[in-house]
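User: Show me a protein chain along with its predicted structure.
Assistant: Here is one chain, sequence first, then C-alpha cells.
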Amino acid sequence: MFRSVLITGGAGYIGSTIASYFKDEGWTPIVLDSLVRGNPEFTKHVKFYNADISDQNILKQIVSENDVEIIIHAAAFVEVPESVEQPALYYRENVAKTLTLLENMQSVGLRKILFSSTAAVYQAEDGNMVTEESPLLPLSPYAKTKLAVEMMLQDLSHAGKIEAVSLRYFNPIGADPKMRSGMFKKNGSHVMAKLSDAAFGKIPAFQITGTDYSTRDGSGLRDYLHVWDLARAHFLAVEKFNDILKDSAYQVINLGTNSGVTVEELVAAYQKVLGKNIPIERAPRRPGDTAGAFASSEKARRLLGWQALSFLEESIATAIEWEKRKL
C-alpha cells in the first residue's frame, strides 16, 4: 500500500488541511501548487513543488523523486462571482489544465486520482436532501467547470486510461484544529468569510440575502461541513481507493452532514460561540439564488466508513480561533 500522496492545490484552504491530516497519519504529503492563489505559509511543513499543475516536467520530477501512486486534485479557482465575470479564466484553469494533468499522469505511469468536486453541480432548489443520483444543474461557470472535469474523469475511467473518484463537497467551514491552516483570502465570497468579516469589523454587517424561501425560517439552507472532517474523508478514500472502485471504473461520493442548517441558524450559532451579536442586514434574494440543499451521506458511510463527527459549533469555534490569530 502506498504511503505518499501528491496533492495539487495543497497550499490552499482545503488542500493544506488535507495535507496536514495525511501527515498526522504518518503519510508523506507532497504538494504541487503554483501559489497563484495558494498561501506559501501552508507549504512550510510539507515537501513542496512550486509549479503549475500542467507542467509535465515537474510531474516527471515528482514521480522520479517520490513513491507516488495517487493524486488528490484540489487545485482550482473557486470564486463564483469571479467565474461569472471571467468564465474563460475558469475554463482554462479548472478544465483545460486538468485535462493536461490527466494526460501527463498517464505519460508518467500514474492512474489513480481523487478529485475535489462540489455540491454546486446539483439542481439544489428546494432545501431538501440530495443523493449522488439527484438531478444536476450547475448554475455558475465555476460549478460547470467542476462538472466538466467529472465528465472527463468518467469517460477516461471507462476507457481504461485512469481510475478516478470524485468527492462532491458541500460547504466546508472551520480550520485545522492545530491551527496550521484555515481560510485566508481577503474579501472572500463564502458565507463564513463574510460572517467573520462582520464579526471582526472588516465590513459593516453580514447580509442575509433571501428571507422568503420555503425553509423553516425563510433563509437559505446549506450543509456545513468541518474542513477537518472533509480531510479525513480524503484519507479514507485514498486508503479504500481500490475497494471503492471494485464494482465500477468511476465513483461519485457526496461529503456532507446528512442535515441542513439555515443561514439564520448559522448566524445564531456563530454569535453564540463568539459571545456577542454581529450586525445583520436582511435583503432580497439575488438573481440565481436558490433555497439550497443538504447531502445524503449514506454512500460515504457505505464506501468510506465515513460520517461527519464535528458539530456546527465546534466548526465555528475553530474558524473564530483562526480569525483571531490572523488579527
